[in-house]
Amino acid sequence: MSWREGYIAVDWGSTNRRAYSIDPAGRVIARLEDSKGVLSVAPGEFDDAAAEIREALGDRAMLIAGMAGSNRGWREATYVDCPADAQALGAAICWIETGRVGIVPGVCRRGPGADVMRGEEVQALGAVAAGLMPGDGLICHPGTHAKWIALRSGQIDAFRTMMTGELFAVLRDHSILSAQMVGDVVADESFAAGVADALDGADLLASLFGIRARHLLGGGRSDARYASGLLIGSDVRTALDGQALGGTVALVGAPALCALYSAALGQAGTVGRVIDGEAAFLAGIRRITEFL
After folding, report:
1. Tens digit of pLDDT for each residue in 67-97?
2. What is the pLDDT of residues 119-166, one digit of tens each?
3. What would the 3-class secondary structure string for 47-80 be?
4. Which listed residue, 109, 172, 200, 226, has the most CB atoms within 10 A of its CB?
5. Sign of dihedral through CA atoms 46, 284, 23, 94?
6. What pTM, to 2 d.p., does this model score?
7. What does the alpha-carbon distance between residue 286 and residue 247 come to, in Å, rounded to a whole number?
8. Which residues contact 127 (CB under 8 A, 6 or more apart)?
9. Exposed, middle or buried by CB within 10 Å (0-12, 13-18, 19+), for 179?
10. Contact 248/208 with Cβ under 8 angstroms?
């Protein structure tokens, strides 16, 4: 079966999966989206889970990206070292069924700055392939573990993961600050104050405890929003270190979170532009299939 005859592209994450039936012209002709992420599939049941996708979308070749290739997924796919492009990913596909069902490998950095990712690499390369961002640029995937990916000449040249979202959740739910970390986070004055302090080089750990101190001393700042601004501002400051200000960072993720990152980037003198994550994913998978 030739990939040029059409295929199924699957973005299989920890909690959700999205599958698309692609025709020979690269158009989406059918789709499946549900909450059957890899964490909800028991070991030994991935064959059946994949069969559900085929039942919905047709008996076609299938290329899968994301956490299905983790050690908790269908089968562990190896990591490709940076710098990485679509050809390198295609050459390292983990085949469940040779030439017909494969899992895209993740990308890694080894050594003192060791880092790994699965899934974001397809969107990053696809964003370039689809013309959503230039071949030289920075793309950010905000989330529990924010990914900042530097692209050079259309390749993933380097990347860095920040535990920004997870740290915010821990502070909100399991720390001495929990009682003050209430309400939705929006880019208001309190959020901007946190971003400003972070960009000015404030000590992150001391500034976080300052939330507690202000509460005890009668401070009136919206602490959840300030804390979010402080964390995202620290994230942005680190990611932009050494980058030329005044440029544009592509953002892929949930709209509300991208809005917060865009606001923080604006305070840092950089434009955050949200791009279509689904379009980037589909373009990345299509580009990889050209090397299969």
Report:
1. 999 999 999 999 999 999 999 999 999 999 9
2. 999 999 999 999 999 999 999 999 999 999 999 999 999 999 999 999
3. HHHHHHHHHHHCCCCEEEEEHHHCCCCCCCCCEE
4. 226
5. negative
6. 0.94
7. 28
8. 133, 139, 250, 252, 275, 280, 283, 284
9. exposed
10. no
